[in-house]
Specification:
The structure holds 2 protein chains of 2 kinds. Chain A is built from 7 helices and 2 strands. By secondary structure, chain A is mainly alpha-helical. In chain A, helix 5 packs antiparallel against helix 6. The termini of chain A are far apart. Classes of the chains: A mainly alpha, B mainly alpha.
Amino acid sequence: MTTTILAILLGTAFGFAIHRVGASNPSGIINMLRLQDMHLMRVILFAIAISSTMIFTAMAFDMVDLSHLTIKSMTWGVIVGGMVFGLGWGVAGYCPGTAACAVSEGRKDARFFILGAMIGSFFYMIGFDFVKDTFLVDTLFGGQAILADVTPKNETAIVSVLPALVTAIIIAAIFTTVAYFLPSSKKPESL
Amino acid sequence: MNGKKLGWLYGGLLLGSVLAIAMIVIKPVGASTQFVILDGIIWDSISPIVSETTQTTTGYTSENSYLAKNEGAYAKKVANPFSYSLIFAISIAFGGLLSRYTMGPKITQEEKSTPTVWMNRFGKGSSYKRYIMTFTGGLLILFGSRLASGCTSGHMMSGMMQTSVSGYFFAFGVFLTAVPTSILFYMKKEK
């Protein structure tokens, strides 16, 4: 029951944030990818910086159950899958999360995106037997690789000379600096 | 009343706080897996695909190898659809609506079928082409997401927030193809 309420609250908050920053509008995504308007890139970079600082601070003070840390395995499939994702993203301008927001605000093209997405994942389900015997599932960097050294977990830490919080703050500072200096659109009415 | 999208600073702060709170309270956000669960639920309702077993730690398995992987983790979610993640994903749509009706960015009637960036390039009355392209985009994006085991939310935002190596490589793969694709696809013809 508690889990259900949390799912509703957090999902609603995430959808609210996606919509409020303008990410459910494909023009915003596409103009970012065309390097015409860096607004969403700045939002994403700063969001990563803020959230990273928050979770690593919480972890440093033992305020987080470390089993919440979810480090996905680094495989060739991550790079190749990302490239396939990029082909679709560059044309559609939707991602799985933003499309859900776009459908609820009445965007008809997003409904076709959702339909395509369901078929794309279905193709993967039936094609998985083929994929799992290829190089795509081979791991790199020891699999669940993480830059910050979170010791109690058994992931492969890349930066082991610094405490996890310091590594996270350095990365956050770099991301924030880039977000600060990137230009947003000079003509906001073009969106 | 016409709403506006948040600037990068407040927008990043809002999005980042949601990402961090979700991870601290329960687990990092993610969206693309739910398309598999949704497909699985539909498949299972047409012809049973998941079943209970004593052979796996989750107590579920499937004839489909993708649903059966990791001790039947996805099979379990298909059998118990009202788990945290699916409710989270559906709530994203509610969050978008909430933002829209509380002075969030508004959408014009024209934009409901095609976003401005598409109309600027392909003109009005090209909405059916846009539907075909978002369908294709959705297909590629979910196939790619599954190959990579995550999307913009799970890999790019949650992954990089946790300093996960796979998050960085996913982002690299995505922008490698998405930037040239969108530049070429939305390039205006020479007058």
